[in-house]
Amino acid sequence: MGRVKGTAAIIGGGIGGLATAVALGRDGWQAVVYEREAGLSGAGTALGIWPAALRALDALDLGDRVRALGQAQRSGAFQRPDGRRIATLDVAALERRTGDAVVLLYRPALLEVLRSALDPSVLRFATPVRDLDALRRGHDLVVAADGIFSRTRRELFGAATAARYTGRTAWRGWLDGMPTDAFTETWGPGAKFGVTPQEQGRTNWYATTTAPERAFRPGAELATLRTRFGDWAAPVRQVLDAVEEDGILRHDLYVVPPLPSFVRDTVVLVGDAAHAMPPDLGRGACEALIDAVALATALRAAPTVTAALHRYDAARRRPLRRLTRTAAAASNLVHLRPLWVRDTLLRLALLPGPPA
Predict the structure, then answer these.
(1) CA distance 217 to 239
(2) For the purposes of burial, counting CB atoms within 10 Å of the CB of 193, is it exposed (0-12), middle (13-18) or buried (19 or more)?
(3) Are the C-beta atoms of residues 314 and 13 closer than 8 Å to each other?
(4) pLDDT digits 0-9 by tens, 187-236
(5) pLDDT in the model for residue 133
(6) Do residues 111 and 103 lie in contact, with contact meaning Cβ atoms separated by under 8 Å?
(7) b/e string for 75-103 if b means 16 or more Cβ within 10 A?
(8) Is 80 exceeded by the pLDDT of residue 239?
(9) Beta strands in 199-296, from DSSP E residues, in sequence order
(10) With the C-alpha atoms ordered 165, 171, 173, 177, is the resulting torsion angle positive or negative?
(11) At the top level of CATH, which class does the domain 7-71+107-164+256-332 belong to?
(12) What is the rounded end-to-end Cα distance, in angstroms, of the chain?
């Protein structure tokens, strides 16, 4: 069976778009990435690269570079705000089962790893896509990697597929001079605060709670965090004592509803454009990397682009629907009452070990 090759237009220069360009380029496709921003995004904090995503990076010959750049997570625990342990995350079992730990890496650093694997001529910055049909006419394949608020998704599948607010907001950031190799997530009533390793001796942190949509307080987010989480036990209190206002990112959390397909004719959705989910499993960037390799694999195995895209859809949509449901359940669990029931369910969920 012959390998499909041709020209591909990729909408979006984030993780999914760049990884897809690398994967297709390795198979002889002539890919062009259209990114509306003037350059790669410099925003973001540490991403957890799980073993399945590391294997996807291995398929792009980039896995060892990410392992070398990132910081492996060596232990993990969930606790209550007073510091009492709820459950332990058996990171060693994950490494024994898969051969890899979870690797934490700064998002801009991962983007740079992917960019470095591409010829600069592939990237068209400051070039927003306004005419999807023109791309379809001019290319054998169009890959929509345009994120959670994907215009392509809405154009293909309608306004009902627009991203939906979850009712929860998140703060994120990182600190120098607080090295750790442990993951700690503190669960209070309806809120959580996480601390993870990051490369170069940094500490990555994040927090979530319920909030009205777009209830941002520029210049006062640190005060909000200290009011909500400031009396929680270590490491939360120490992080909030060290955080400065200009080091805080805040984003409301959105999800994409289940789609009838990730494919329409010769257009395919990857990453958050297809399946944005709550961040509680830390799998968003991972699944975008896996999408890229799965798409290239399908194109390699099928006789036509159309047949390949159906293979990709069949391979990815059902497991991603299960993963999305699991992420939603994990997101909802922190809000469960009474707390002893919530904590018991969390312990039971972790008995098989972390998902690979």
Answers:
(1) 20
(2) buried
(3) no
(4) 999 999 999 988 888 899 999 999 999 999 999 999 999 999 999 999 99
(5) 96
(6) no
(7) ebebbbbeeeebbebbbeebbeebebbbb
(8) yes
(9) 202-210, 249-255, 263-264, 267-269
(10) negative
(11) alpha beta
(12) 32
CA 95 – CA 192 distance, rounded (Å): 26
| Bridge partner residues of 193 (DSSP) | 186, 207
Dihedral sign for Cα 176, 181, 186, 190, please. Answer: positive
Residue in 286, 236, 287 with CA at minimum distance from that of residue 105: 286
d(CA 339, CA 80): 10
Q: CB–CB of 23/295 below 8 Å?
A: yes
Cα angle 278, 283, 287; round to 5: 115
- Determine the Cα–Cα distance for residues 103 and 95; give it in Å rounded to an integer: 11
Q: Looking at residues 70-97, what average pLDDT do you find? A: 90
Q: How deeply is 310 buried, as exposed, middle or buried, from its count of CB atoms within 10 A (0-12, 13-18, 19+)? A: middle
Place of tokens 């009452």: 337
User: What tokens were used for 265?
Assistant: 């004719």
Complete DSSP assignment for 66-125: HHHHSEE--EEEEE-TTS-EEEEE-HHHHHHHHS---EEEEHHHHHHHHHHTS-GGGEET
Q: 297 pLDDT band (50/70/90 cuts)?
A: very high
Summarised one tens digit per residue, pLDDT across range 332-342 is 999 999 999 99
Asked if pLDDT for residue 2 goes beyond 60, the answer is no
Confidence of residue 1 (pLDDT cuts 50, 70, 90): very low
- Both tokens of residue 263? 């494919």
